[in-house]
Amino acid sequence: MVISTLRTLKHGLENALSALQRRRRAAEMERTAPHATRAQIAVDLKRLGIVPGDVLFMHSSLKSLGFVEGGPAAVIDALLDAIGPDGTLLLPTYWIPGGTLLATCELPDYVFDPRQHGTHMGALPAAFLERPGLKRSVHPTHSCAAVGPAAQFLVEAHHLAPSVFGEGSPWQRFATLPQGKVLGLGISMGPVTIYHRVEDEMGQDFPVPVWLERTYSLPCIDHDGRRCMVPVRPFAPEIVQRRIDQKGRDDLRQWFARDFSAAGIKVNGRVAEADAWFVRGQDFMVHMRALAKRGITIYSTAEELARADAGS
Ligand SMILES: CC(C)(COP(=O)(O)OP(=O)(O)OC[C@H]1O[C@@H](n2cnc3c(N)ncnc32)[C@H](O)[C@@H]1OP(=O)(O)O)[C@@H](O)C(=O)NCCC(=O)NCCS
């Protein structure tokens, strides 16, 4: 009893301290970083090539933009301005309380509830969750949220999909939309989820055994308060270690950025202070399949990349 009270107190103090440090860093940014506004961000998105009617799947870093007046909500407004009323914004609002899929699958009492759980994917997805009219998929690790005419279509069947990235998932559905674009705001080609759609789709033909054998079944509460069980098959931990989003894989991130740009499908530019890029979702899929057929994946070693360069 005493120990658990002390533990709760310790967590409370740690949270208060990190909130204070965050506020201090934001105040420091406000003083020292270049300022960006909603209007400027919308203009820069347009200049990059984002057009009305686009369906954007965005991965982002807020602080890469400089100091944004109006905070993360102003960036979301700017994105919605750029795509207009016919466009849809889809964001990763994943909640992965164990830190990895495997650890989350092994949490003893975890039940995902989209009305209660936030996101671990940064300030912009967190601010997005506050939007009125937002639709959010019911998924214990990879819940996505969307606003716009295609929102319902993108998120409605995620809990029924046979795998995280499988048929009915937001990525499978996103890839059917010709106006889909994967947008990176201030991020490299590391933390990008659509890679996994290709792995799922290719199954046994994918050159790397990405998944563990076991599929877990995790409980979720849907938007009507009903309980459902959702399948999650974790990534194999030893394969994850050499993945493109890992600290030591700058070589792979740069290789992919160069390769996608050379293929003419990665459009690079700048939004406020951030390096920004987009790739059409369907081009992304076609290119990843072609790379996988040559044995190149987001798990390729430096030697494999060198061999690919020598052969091309
Ligand atoms: C991890 C990641 C989110 C970190 O980016 P970040 O910019 O440091 O963090 P956030 O986007 O959460 O923004 C919070 C930061 O913005 C700062 N900030 C606060 N108010 C701000 C404002 N008005 N304007 C600009 N920055 C502001 C905060 O101080 C904080 O910085 P700090 O951590 O140095 O204190 C990013 O690198 C990333 O990987 N994004 C992609 C995530 C994703 O989609 N993953 C899917 C993978 S499959």
Instruction: Give the termini distance in whole angstroms.
Output: 65 Å
Number of helices: 12
Shape: globular
Give the uncertain stretches in residue-range form. Answer: none
Largest beta sheet: what is the strand line-up? 5-6-4-2-7-11-10
State the total count of DSSP E strands.
Answer: 11
Mean pLDDT level: 96
Please give the largest β-sheet. 7 strands, mixed
Q: How big a fraction of the residues is strand?
A: 15-25%
State the share of residues found in helices, binned by percent. Answer: 25-40%
Structural class of the secondary structure composition? alpha/beta
Counted up, domains total 2
Q: Rounded to an integer, what's the Rg over CA atoms? A: 20 Å
Order of helices and strands: HEHEEHEHHEEHHEHEEHHEEHH
Explain this structure.
The protein has two domains: 1-32; 35-311, no CATH class. It is α/β, with parallel strands linked by helices. It has helices at residues 2-32, 38-48, 71-83, 101-105, 123-128, 151-155, 170-174, 195-202, 237-240, 250-262, 281-293, 302-311, and strands at residues 35-36, 55-60, 67-68, 88-92, 135-136, 144-147, 180-185, 216-221, 227-232, 267-271, 274-280. It is 40% helix and 16% strand. It contains twelve helices and eleven strands. A seven-stranded mixed β-sheet has the order 5-6-4-2-7-11-10. The model has no long low-confidence stretch (mean pLDDT 96). The structure holds coenzyme A. Coenzyme A binds next to helix 1, strand 2, strand 3 and helix 5. Residues 22, 25-26, 29, 59-65, 67-68, 71, 92, 121-124, 187, 191, 193 line the site of coenzyme A.
